[in-house]
Amino acid sequence: MDPEKSATLFFKRLVDVSGWEQMDPSHAANAVQINSDPNHYTKYWDDAVKLTDELSRKYGATGAATSCTTGAAAYPLKQPFIMSDGFGPRTAPTEGASSWHPAVDLVGHCGDPIYSILPGKVVRSDRLYLSIESPDGFLVEYLHSHKSDRTVNVGDQVQRGQEISKVGDEAPATGCHLDLRIDTTNNTNPDVAKLPTYPEAPGYVNPEEFMKIFGVELCPPAWCTRNY
What we know:
By secondary structure, the protein is an alpha+beta fold. The chain contains four helices and 13 strands. It folds into two domains: 3-59, no CATH class; 82-226, Glucose Permease (Domain IIA), CATH 2.70.70.10.
């Protein structure tokens, strides 16, 4: 078997699978290969991620020692969606909301699924926050979903693209939406460390710039409307 040819053929077929970006990795592979057990690859996933990340950090794409982030992030909501507020200073939209927004707001329908953009461990799940810690130390935080809608609990390991909650309007909110924010206080990823932080929101980085590191344009003009 030629690994390069096999991988190329696999990925060409993968992009034809509707919704593959939001699927569990093993289920996505099963949709391409049609093997008998859709969970066949689940037991190998964590080790595979660790191996590819380590090889990429050490050797990079060209074989030279370098720092490189591998793997694409998943979109946190079904597409298309609206970005109703950006990262940075703003007029507070409702009582209790901040005037310096360390996040982006993405509007979806109430009850739509929220997906984990990257793998990690759930470290916080309270009234407002659902926080997932990456193996690289940064936190991906999802705000405004109702705790009763969460499908994961503190201590759970989650995969990229896994459903973790549903879009809600937990206060302070003016309607159903997802507030997505990235806290890099304990980050060890050298690429993420290059992103600027701001004294108004120490440790937080612009989620749009963050997602670019992982190969995703969060709000592409082809289907995402900026309404702010």
